Amino acid sequence: MADLVVGFDLDMTLVDSRPGIRASFEALVAETGLEIDIETAIGRLGPPLEIELADWVDAARVPELAARYRAHYLVLGVPGTTLLPGSRAAVAAVRARGGRSLVVTAKEERSARACLTHVELAVDEVVGLRYGDGKVAALREHDAIVYVGDTVTDVASGHAAGVTTVAVTTGPHSAAELASAGADVVFDSLEAFPAWLTTEFGPPIAR
Fold it and tell me: In whole angstroms, what is the distance from residue 198 CA to residue 191 CA?
């Protein structure tokens, strides 16, 4: 059997980043006077920040504003991040089977690592600024055999990479939407993940 390498999305899969994202957007709006519907932006987390900003400002301003947002995020967003139910046990379950955990996220790597440090969740590797085909490439590069995410695009990336795709409904999409997108299995939260891992890959390694 191939080595167990499990990829996880970050926002709304492992962590609830919404309070920190809200605070960071509020700071950006206060600084720039931009008109951004923050709740709309938070409700469709998943794509890169630049794609979200392009819905609200001229394309020429996106790089500058993305840099300003990310500066605010390191100060305001990281402390607003909390673990979602089952996240710690899910990562531990991979490790208990001699596997490696990989975070593949559209978030900038520096911010992703800062969030993981803040919530004290240790993973083996973090790959940032990946979305769509970028996630596909990262999963292949790291020999992942499972990818866990919360969006239909996560499901699509997992399938394109040829891995088993696990979806959780802690993000913007319903169980029906994730199943229709082709998820191999759908859970309400990561709390169900360790038991599934046992079914698919056997019990933890005796130490």
Answer: 13
User: pTM, whole model, 2 decimals?
Assistant: 0.94
Any idea how long the chain is?
207
Which tokens sit at 39? 């709740």
pLDDT band at 1 (very low <50, low <70, confident <90, very high): very low
From the centroid of its chain, how far is CA 159? 16
3-class SS letters over the chain: CCCCEEEECCECCCEECHHHHHHHHHHHHHHHCCCCCHHHHHCCCCCCHHHHHHCCCCHHHHHHHHHHHHHHHHHHHHHHCEECCCHHHHHHHHHHCCCEEEEECCCCHHHHHHHHHHCCCCCCEEECCCCCHHHHHHHHHCCCCEEEECCHHHHHHHHHCCCEEEEECCCCCCHHHHHHCCCCEEECCHHHHHHHHHHHHCCCCCC
For residues 199 and 176, give the distance between their C-alpha atoms in angstroms, rounded to a whole number: 23
Read off the pLDDT of each residue in 49-76 and give the average, rounded to a whole number.
Answer: 95
